[in-house]
Amino acid sequence: MADRDAPTRPTAFEAGRPADPPAGAGGFVREATGNDLEAIGRVHAASMLASLRVAHAAAHDGAPLPAGVVAMIAAPVLAAGWERAVLAPPSPRHRVLVATEGGEVVGLLGLAPTQGLAQGDPGAEPESAVEITALGVDPTRQRSGHGSRLLAAAADHARADGARVLLVWAVRGDESVRGLLAGAGLELTPSRRELPVGRGVTEECWGAAL
């Protein structure tokens, strides 16, 4: 996996606050609980596989995602990986949010503190930042506003925790994710990193000032 380069200065994040959904929208965002772990694993696996399949096909002339990679992205394994983050987060700034529809978990987002950008003097301290460590919506529930609500809630929590910058890594080639991030006001930075799922499959860093 390639080393991360420091992203350029992101622009202002314009997603707004996670306001209550319109009447009849049936979706909202809340913090995850232990009862959500199974659903989180299922949604994360489905959204990750959908994204990686698109990216791998784009990088390899339509070739399918390797079977070994598919086998590793199993819902129970991912659910177990989220257990500590949900039940015993390392700090109050580490959060796991879920998007729900009709009481069912249909999306997830992980937040963790990270270093932002050093401004002005090269010796200056980097700005306080928060990274979105995971972002996914059930492929059958996309284009319903869940991703936008998750991003808006993430921005609100980041601001409340004193962060000045929001960062997220997204697979290159998944135009649905690209559109979501761009529509929320994040900007693509020059930073890239290669994923171990087939040569040429990379993640791009997006960022926004809060």
What features would you describe in this structure?
With 210 residues, the protein is of the alpha+beta class. The protein has one domain: Gcn5-related N-acetyltransferase (GNAT) (Aminopeptidase), CATH 3.40.630. It has five helices and eight strands. Strands 1, 2, 3, 4, 5, 6, 7 and 8 form an eight-stranded mixed sheet that branches. The longest helix is centred in the N-terminal third of the chain and has 23 residues, at 37-59. The two termini are 28 Å apart. The model is unreliable at 1-6 and 15-24 (pLDDT under 50).
Quaternary structure state of the chains depicted: single chain
What percent strand?
25-35%
Largest sheet: 8 strands, mixed
Order of helices and strands: EEHHHEEEHEHEE
Q: What is the count of DSSP helices, taking H or I runs of 4+ residues? A: 5
CATH C-level name: Alpha Beta
Radius of gyration: 17 Å
The termini sit apart by: 28 Å
Percent helix range:
25-40%
In the CATH hierarchy, the third-tier topology is known as Aminopeptidase
Keyword list:
single chain, 210 residues, alpha+beta, Aminopeptidase, eight-stranded mixed sheet, 8 strands, 31% helix, disordered N terminus
How is the secondary structure organized here?
Blueprint: E1 11-12, E2 27-31, H1 37-59, H2 67-72, H3 75-87, E3 95-101, E4 104-118, E5 126-137, H4 146-160, E6 165-171, H5 175-183, E7 187-194, E8 202-209
Parallel strand pairs: 1-8, 5-6
Antiparallel strand pairs: 2-3, 3-4, 4-5, 6-8, 7-8
Helix pairs in contact: 1-3
